[in-house]
Amino acid sequence: MAYRPAALMGLGSYLPPWVISNEDLAAELDTTDEWITTRTGIRARHRVSPGTSTGDLAVEAGHRALKSAGLDAEPGAVDAVVLATTTPDHPCPATAPDVAARLGLGPIGAYDISAVCSGFLYALATASAQITAGQAERILVIGAETYSTIINPADRTTSVIFGDGAGAVVLAAADDSGQPGVLLGVDLGSDGLHRDLISIPAGGSRQRSTPGEPDPDGRYFTMQGKKVFAAAVARMAESSTSVLDSIGWTTESVDHLVGHQANARILKALAKQLGIPEERAVVHLDRVGNTSAASIPLALAHAASQGTLTPGSRVLLTAFGGGLTWGSVALTWPDVTPA
Ligand code: COA
Fold first, then answer.
1. Ligand 1 pocket by C-beta < 6 Å: which residues?
2. pTM of the entire structure?
3. Which catalytic residues are annotated (predicted)?
4. CA angle 13-23-305, nearest 5°?
């Protein structure tokens, strides 16, 4: 197989039906709808019921992305499944092989990507590289999360922010780089020196989870919000500029900024720093909160179904998350109907 670009050709999303409003949280925690709305822009988030896993959401979103791409879920539909998640079904094995099997996609390559809130863009970069290297024709790329399983329900600083959900795309080999949907530029970055800003301390080889540990709550997700806020704006702005420069697009020419949906104030500050009018920033977090690796494909599916993203428009994707990690991708929007 020869070198060729990779293009987005299918888009699907799935949100679990249980919706938690700010008022629901205020009834249980020392918080208010007013604080959550003004400090984050979030009004509601979805949560799985006990027993529903990240893999379950990934299967739903994956099925829809295949349908959107006009593909039946059967062997030969895609050559690989890449699943970005912070909340795999098990520490071992990866969740992607199970998702591929449950979708009936045959004995194809399937692997997880762990880059927290940047995970979907890391997965897109990896899948696109497999296609351009000639290792695959089509790849199902999924971002799926169940943060409700790792959040301390008593911690008001994190439990009001995160939500569960999944989004997926099909990437396929394209004839030429002028084809709409082609990933024109990709930028990835990381800074492990600041790994402690976002972490689940226990449960890995550094700090195993065993009963009777001095810090039994080390299994919960922790975040230093203020420092994360500042780093998110700075790194996403730098990465966005870098990817735009690499393909010769100016910031003024970007029609839609689809940033990681962490906080409306972060999106606003990012647009301002880039010099992109605020109204070009897609905002979906008001309905779903921060869904980490699922946030970009969920925002894309929402904006495309609302008619905001139109074929041929210039779209900039950018994300930031634990690791620290960040990344950006630029593409012209294809003629795709989300499922
Ligand atoms: N309800 C009411 N008060 C709350 C609260 C809540 N849910 N959460 C925190 N507070 C309080 C704090 O205790 C603090 O009180 P104090 O001044 O008496 O100490 C006050 O509100 C301000 O807290 P602070 O953390 O400084 O608020 P903030 O304006 O930085 O907003 C975040 C907090 C988490 C919303 C914000 O920092 C943020 O969005 N960070 C990025 C997080 C993110 O999305 N990361 C994901 C990976 S990119």
1. 31, 35-36, 39-40, 117, 156-157, 160-161, 198, 223, 225-226, 228-229, 232, 262-263, 290, 320-321
2. 0.96
3. 117, 260, 290
4. 25
